[in-house]
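user: Please review this fold.
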Amino acid sequence: MYDRINRKLELHLSPQKIESFISDIIMNTDTSHFLKKGKNYYITNDTEHIQ
C-alpha cells in the first residue's frame, strides 16, 4: 500500500511519514469535502492541492 501511495503521489516517504501526511490532510479537511462512493472515500482539499 505504501509503495502505491508513493507512486501515485510521486513521493518517496517512509510508511510513518505517509500515515502522518494522510492523517494531517484528513484532520485539516472539512467534512463537507468528503465524498463516499461505494466503499471508497474521496477527499478534496484545495489548500493542500488534493483531489
Notes: The chain has a mean pLDDT of 90. The first strand starts at residue 34 and ends at 37. Residues 15-27 form the longest helix (13 residues). The chain is about 40% helix and 15% strand.
